[in-house]
Amino acid sequence: GQQLNQSPQSMFIQEGEDVSMNCTSSSIFNTWLWYKQDPGEGPVLLIALYKAGELTSNGRLTAQFGITRKDSFLNISASIPSDVGIYFCAGRGGSQGNLIFGKGTKLSVKP
Amino acid sequence: GAVVSQHPSWVICKSGTSVKIECRSLDFQATTMFWYRQFPKQSLMLMATSNEGSKATYEQGVEKDKFLINHASLTLSTLTVTSAHPEDSSFYICSARHRLNTEAFFGQGTRLTVV
Q1: Measured between alpha carbons, how far is B85 from B65 in angstroms, rounded to an integer?
Q2: How many C-beta atoms surround the C-beta of residue A54 within 10 A?
Q3: pLDDT tens column, B21-69
Q4: Cβ partners under 8 Å of residue B58, min gap 6
Q5: Which residues in chain A touch residue B102, judged by CB atoms under 8 angstroms apart?
C-alpha cells in the first residue's frame, strides 16, 4: 500500500530559527496537506496543495508540492514558542481517496 | 475553515460498557466522515469511512461489530465502542468532508479511558 515517510521525527530548535520538514511517498499524490496537532486536540489544517510545483504560504509557513508529486516540504520561518506541536503531512491519491498520514514531526522550541 | 465538533472530549468508562462518541459538522453538510484512532506519540490510523445513508467501510483489522458507526444525517456521525476493554483506551478523532471539497476537517478528539 501507499506509504509516507516524514522526517525528521523530532526537532529541538531555538526561538527565531527556521524549521524545515518533509514527506516523501512511494506513489504519486494529487493532494498534499499539512496539519498541526496540539496535545489533546484534533489536527488543524495549515496548508493545502493541489498542483505539482505549487508553493503556498500561510503567514510564517510555506509548503511546496514536489514536481514529482511524490514529496512535499513545510518550512516555518522565525519560529516562536507557540509553534510547538506535532506536524503531520497527509497525501491523497485521488480526489475522493482516503488521506494517508505521515508519522509526524514533533517540534520543540526553546525560548 | 469549516467547524467539526466532537463530543465528549474525554470519557472514562468501566470495562464491558459501551461508549458513544458524536461527530457533528456545524456549518456544512458532511457527505463523508472518517474515524481515526491515535495511540500516544503515533500518527492517526484510519478506522472507517462512512458516507451519509450508507454502511461504513472499515479498514482491515478493525472490528465492525465492536466499533459501530452510524452516519444517519449529513451533519452527524456516531462511533460506539461496544463492550469496551482497557486496550480500547485511545484518542479517537473524527473528520468530515463535503462531497464538493477535497479537504477534511477534524474534530477536537475524544480521549477514551477504559478502567
Answers
A1: 14
A2: 16
A3: 999 999 888 889 999 999 988 889 999 999 888 889 999 999 999 999 9
A4: B47, B48, B64, B67
A5: 31, 48, 50, 92, 95-96
Q: What is the DSSP letter of B64?
A: T
> What is the H or E stretch that residue A90 is in?
strand A85-92
Mean pLDDT for back-to-back runs of 10 residues, chain A (111 residues): 85 96 93 93 94 96 96 97 95 76 93 88
Query: How many residues are present in chain B?
Result: 115
Question: In which element (H, E) is residue A55 found?
Answer: strand A55-58
* B40 touches A: beta carbon within 8 Å: no
Surface-to-core class of residue B66, CB atoms within 10 Å of its CB (0-12 exposed, 13-18 middle, 19+ buried): middle
Nearest CA in chain A to B51: A96
Contacts of B34 in chain A (CB under 8 A): 98-99
Torsion of CA B49, B53, B54, B58, to 10 degrees: 30
DSSP code string of B12-55: EE-TT--EEEEEEESSS--SEEEEEEE-TTS-EEEEEEEETTSP
Query: Contact at 8 Å (CB) between A109 and A11?
Result: no
CA-only gyration radius of chain A, Å: 13
